[in-house]
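Intended use. Records such as the Succinyl-CoA synthetase-like flavodoxin domain-containing protein entry shown here are meant for training and evaluating sequence-to-structure methods. They are not intended to support clinical decisions.
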Amino acid sequence: MGLSTIDGDSDGEEKEGFFSGFGVFSNFKRGNIAIISQSGMLNGGYLMHVMTKYPNLGFRYACSIGNKMDLSEIEFLEYLIKDNTVNVIAIYLESFKNSRKFIELCRKVRSMPNKTIILLRGGITPQGQKASLSHTGSLAENSRLINGIIKQSGVIYANSFYELFQFARTFSIIYETGKILPKKGNVSFVAGSGGAGTITADLTMKYGLNFPILGDKAYDALVDVFPDWMPPNRFAFIDIWPAMEKAMMNKVRPDVVTTHVYKTLLSESNIEGIFNMMFCSRQFRALNDLDQIVDNVKNSSKPIFFWLVGEDKEVRRVSKILAKHNLPDFPSLEEMVKNFSILVQESNNKF
């Protein structure tokens, strides 16, 4: 007889959670993420990889459902939706046990302000369906039907295991730190590179985001720290290097400029979040006072994302410091922009 009920090991608000993967998880951080997976590898080796790569990322449940001989995604979803310790539910499926019930449960989550479902669906192509048949015995489902279920459910859709966990990490941090989900997609980018700004501007358009026009008060505040020969843009791409050059010529510390820029952008009501390009080099650490940057942004209700470039060792050092303060960084500009866009999508999903 298979297990037919799901129950945590505590009746209190802080449920301990459980892990049903084949791995041994004796040292991990309990957090707000739950996983439902038809792949044992996802709840084993891949989860180990994510836990060691992001030790500050917390997990509450990892539920393997295999070929669903007894319990399926439906029963686990019903349980996890009721658990207030779970903010993010990451799901990998190769088939839907009951598509109508799945849509119903996902739509229920859309009315819950602090809970998000992320879905990765395997077997959406004829070749993928052949592979899933030999894996979990999942029968082929029409791709149009699959896409219809995804659209009606209103979940955040991931295209790979990598995206599934990256999206889960982003939402986990947003909920844990009490950030406000952006609704309009208005974002600012602080960088020391015009090229990075140009590419990011293209990416913001690709993912439905926007660099808004700065209000007069914010623009005038930026003018104060920029040189006359290179004033700031009127829109929210801030190429900060000219302001740094002016500061160095006037023997002003770089952190004075960055603090001024961050405070200006964070107080601008038309900006819902900030992208940051940070050049990481042991030689030029003085240009990035990390303690000051963290102090400037950690208490903001707006999402703050970082893209780190430079020396690999220094990038890893800075990434660890940011992670301790729940400030996410991303390995590419596109991933940074895309992860902000799913926040906008989820904000507009809610009703």
